[in-house]
Structures are given as structure tokens and as C-alpha cells.
Amino acid sequence: MGSLKELKEQVWQANMELFRKNLVVHTFGNVSGIDRKRNIIAIKPSGIPYPELSVDKIVMVDLENRVVDSKYKPSSDTRSHLVLYKAFPGIGGIVHTHSPYATAWAQARKPIPCLGTTHADHLPTEIPCTRELSDKQIKGDYETETANQIVKRFSGISPDEVQMVLVAGHGPFTWGKSPEQAVYHSLMLEEIAKIALFTLLINPGVKNLQRALIDKHFFRKHGKNSYYGQT
């Protein structure tokens, strides 16, 4: 188990990687990481532009959203992150962005179908989209309800296998075993969303990839019998 200082550094680096990969602009997005032994999360501060972000501005909060060590306010999405950490105990990092292609699918209120092997290399299912929030949910604890919609959508879906989701009308969330892995999944989600859009523009009637090919590509990279990459 590393120190909380190391966690702050890790989360800062992951946030800056979002910026370097053009997944965020100005202040739109955030990465968090959790120390599950201490029940502390580190997260981007609210409203700080990425070019101005530094390690010392990363905010630590406990699982009740109480700031532990900072003069800065945590991201306005912190309560969403906290709900997901509590609901999905296997995850160690969360990313939220407004990356354009994934956000376009979220605004269209559409899951991303598995149309090709690029998608199947990462997950063997569609990328799910939540239901829209009700007016009551929006007027209440909006950030908590946003994450509650994600948790509801994952009833019957393993968050350890499907590590990305679209929030209807809003944008994507991804997660992983670490902040770095969550950023990687955000990058892959954006590429999959872009390719799916172009595919449907070229052929609006295209069908989902056949199951045998989905399984071949997914399981050659994942699972006990995977053989992709170096030993």
C-alpha cells in the first residue's frame, strides 16, 4: 500500500494524461483514485483548468465527502465517484469526461453496439447507456442520483468486465483497477464511439458483429486462455 502522497501524485498524473490525450478541455472532466485501506479518495479540484493543475491542488476526501487535507473544493462530481466506489468494490480509479464522440452517444441516449473487432477487443457487449434522470432526481442530490442511475443500469452486468458507461444526456464514466487504467478505458471508449458513429453513417443498416467473432477477439485478450501479448 502506497502513501496518500503517492495517491495524489498518481491521480494528478492521470488527470494530466486526460488532457494530453485530448479527452478533456478547460475544466471539463476529472479523475479520482481510492485508497481502500484508508477509505480516502483523491480527486481533481472543482473548476481548476487543466493547464493550472498541480499535485498540491489534488483534493483528498473521505467516503462521506469530507475534505481531509486541502483548501480547495473537490470536483462537483465527487459524490458520483463515491457512490461508484461503494457499489463497485473491485475498482480503484474513476474517470468522467465530456469527450465529444462518447458524449454524442450519451446525448443521443443510445448504447454503443458492438459492430466490429475493435470494440470486441475491449468488451464483448454493447456499451450501456443509463436511463434519463427524473425531474425529482435532478432537483435533489443530482450527483448522487447520476451515479445511482449507473448502478441501476449495471444490475446483471459485471462492472469488472464492462468498465464504461454512458450517462443519458450527460457523458461517459469509466473505471478500472487504478486511475491509469480508468484513463485507458476512457481513451478506448472515445475511439470505439468514433468508429461506431462513422460505421453507422456509412451503413445505417449494419448489424452487430457475429457472436463467434466477438468472443474470439475478447477472449484472446481476456480470461484464463488469453494468448494476446507477451508472456
Report what the structure shows.
- The protein has 231 residues and is of the alpha+beta class.
- It has one domain (4-219): L-fuculose-1-phosphate Aldolase.
- It has eight helices and six strands.
- The chain has helices at 4-20, 78-87, 100-107, 117-120, 135-139, 142-153, 179-202, 211-219, and strands spanning 29-35, 40-43, 59-62, 93-97, 164-167, 171-176.
- It has a six-stranded antiparallel sheet with strand order 3-2-1-4-6-5, with helices on both faces.
- A hairpin with a 3-residue loop joins strand 5 and strand 6.
- The radius of gyration is 18 Å and the shape is globular.
- The model has no long low-confidence stretch (mean pLDDT 95).
Could you give a quick summary of the protein structure above?
With 231 residues, the protein is of the alpha+beta class. Helices cover 39% and strands 13% of the residues. The chain has a single domain, classed as L-fuculose-1-phosphate Aldolase, CATH 3.40.225.10.
How would the global form be characterised?
Answer: globular
CATH class type? Alpha Beta
Q: Oligomeric status of the shown chains?
A: single chain
Question: What amount of the residues lies in strands?
Answer: 5-15%
Helix content: 25-40%
CATH superfamily: Class II aldolase/adducin N-terminal domain
User: What is the third-level CATH name, the topology?
Assistant: L-fuculose-1-phosphate Aldolase
Strand order within the widest sheet? 3-2-1-4-6-5
Q: What is the number of E strands?
A: 6
